Amino acid sequence: MIKTVSTTAFDDQKPGTSGLRKKVRHFQQTNYVQNFIQSIFDSLEGFEGKTLVIGGDGRYFNREVIQTAIKMAAVAGFGRVLVGKGGILSTPAASNVIRKYAAFGGIILSASHNPGGPDEDFGIKYNIGNGGPAPEGITDKIHANTKSITEYTILDAPDLDLDAQGTQTLGDMTVEVIDPVADYAELMESLFDFPAIRAMFEGGFTMSFDAMSAVTGPYATEILENRLGAPKGTVVNGTPLEDFGGHHPDPNLVHAKELYDRMMADDAPDFGAASDGDGDRNLIIGRGIFVTPSDSLALLAANAHLAPGYAKGLAGIARSMPTSGAADRVAEALCIEIYETPTGWKFFGNLLDAGKATICGEESAGTGSDHVREKDGLWAVLLWLNILAVRKEPVKDIVTAHWAKYGRNQYTRHDYEAVETDAANGLMDALRGRLADLPGTTVADLTVATADDFSYHDPVDGSVSKNQGVRIGFEDGSRVVFRLSGTGTSGATLRVYLEKLDTGPGSAERETQAALADVIAAADELAGIKSRTGRDAPDVIT
Ligand code: VG1
Ligand code: CO
Q1: Nearest Cα residue to atom 2 of ligand 1
Q2: Residue 112 catalytic?
Q3: CA 488–ligand 1 middle distance (angstroms)
Q4: Of the candidates 105, 119, 41, 82, which has an alpha carbon nearest to the alpha carbon of residue 490?
Q5: What is the pLDDT of residues 438-466, one digit of tens each?
Q6: The model's pTM
Q7: Are 334 and 438 part of one and the same domain?
Q8: Do 479 and 365 share a structural domain?
C-alpha cells in the first residue's frame, strides 16, 4: 500500500562537499531522512523502470535508511534496486556497480571518515549514472526541493531481508541483494598485474593494511589475502563495525597512528596502507617513510604505465586546487594536461567522462582514475603494489628518487576543528575583503605575489563554481590556501593548506613542519588564526 505523508521542510538539508552529513540523532528526527530522499527523487527525471543502486559503509543507522530508501524508490517508479548484502557497498564499489549495470543512479549512505555510532555522524549522497557524485546542478535542485517539500510517498511494507543474496519483489519493483565485493574485485583484477603482485608476496614481501573497522575490510581481505596470497593478518581491523570500534575511520597520521608507528619501527613491514569509513581514501606509508597524498598522486601518475590498465599512458592528470603542485611537474614531464578543480570528487566527473584526465587526486588522501567515478582507496593501494612489484625497490627509494628528479613539495594541512561558526566565517570574510590589497605586502618575511578566491570554470560543460578557497601565493613560490570544510557536522572546520617547493640540498631529510615554518607564520599573520579562533595549535596536522 502506498502511503502519502505530509511533512514540513527542514532548512538545513543543503548538500556539502560530499552529500548531506549530520549527526545520527539529527537524521533520526521524524521525516528528516524521508524528506531528503524524496527531494533527491524529485530532482531527477526519466528513471521510470530503471535501476537504482543503494549501499553504504555499514555505519550505525545504515540498515534503517536503506529500508526507507528502497520503499520510497518502489513508489517513485524505479524498476529495480541493487543493494549490497548487509547494506554494504564501499563508495568506489557502488560507483562501479552503477556503471557496470548501467543504473540510472545510486544512493550512497556514508559520512566517510567521520566517526559512527548513535551519537556520531551519518550521511546521504546521490550519484548519477556515470557512477560519480551528483554535480552541483543536481545538488542545487535537491537543496531547492528540500526547502519546499510538503509530502513524500513510501510503500507501507515489511522490511526486506538484506542479508540473503538474490531477488525479492517489492510492489512493482525487484530488489536484488548482491555480493558487494565480487564486481569490484573483478574490476581490480582487470587493471593490475595480479600474478606479479602475488609473486612479490610469495617472495616474502610484507604489508599491513588497516581497514579501520570500516567498509574496506571485506574488500581488502578478499583481494589482498585471498586473491593475491598475502599472509592472513595482513589486513587488520578487517571487520566493519557500526561504530568503527569507537575510532575515527580517517586514514591520517593522527587516527592511523598505530599503523604509522609500526611502519617507523625497525622491524616494519615493507608497505603500510589504510582506508577510510567508506573505502574511498588511502594512506600510504613505506617502511620509514610517510608518503603525503599529494606526493602519492604524483608518484602514481609518474609510474602508472607500469600497471597493465594504464600501460598506454595517461590522457591527463587532475588535482583539487589545495593539493600540492607535485603532480603538475609530472604532467609537464609527460607532456599531458593538468587540471585544477575545487575540492570534492564531483568536479572530476566531467573531466573523466570527456577523456581529458585519467588519474585524479586530492590532498585529503583521495586518489582515483577513470575506472570508476569516485576516489578509490584500495585501487591506490593496488597501483602502488603493482609499481613495487615491477620496480622491486623500497618505497623510500622510489620516493626519494622522485624528489631528486622533480623536486620535493613540502606540504602540510592544518585543521582547526569545531571552531565557532561566526569566528570562522569572520576570518574568511576578512581575508576575502583584503585580497585586492595583499599583493606586494610582506608578511612574516614573505612577500605576497598573488591573492584570489578560487573560481572554477569547468572546461567541459562551462559551469562556474565560485568561492572555492582563498589562495595566497608568495614570491618565492610557496603558497597558503584557506577554506572551510564542507563535510563537518559541528561548528566550522578551518583548513589551512601550506606548501613550498624544496629543491635545495638535504630536502629529502628536511622535516616538513620546519621546512614550512615561515609559510605557517605568514598564514597566521594573514588570517589571524590564533586570535580569531582562540586556538594555539591545529587539532589535526596531516
Ligand atoms: C573533505 C576533503 C575533500 C574530500 C571530501 C570528501 O572535504 O577535504 O578533499 O573530497 O572530504 O571525502 P571538506 O569539505 O571537509 O574539506 V570523503 O572520503 O569524506 O567522502
Ligand atoms: Co571517504
Answers
A1: 364
A2: yes
A3: 9
A4: 119
A5: 999 999 999 999 999 999 999 999 999 99
A6: 0.94
A7: no
A8: no
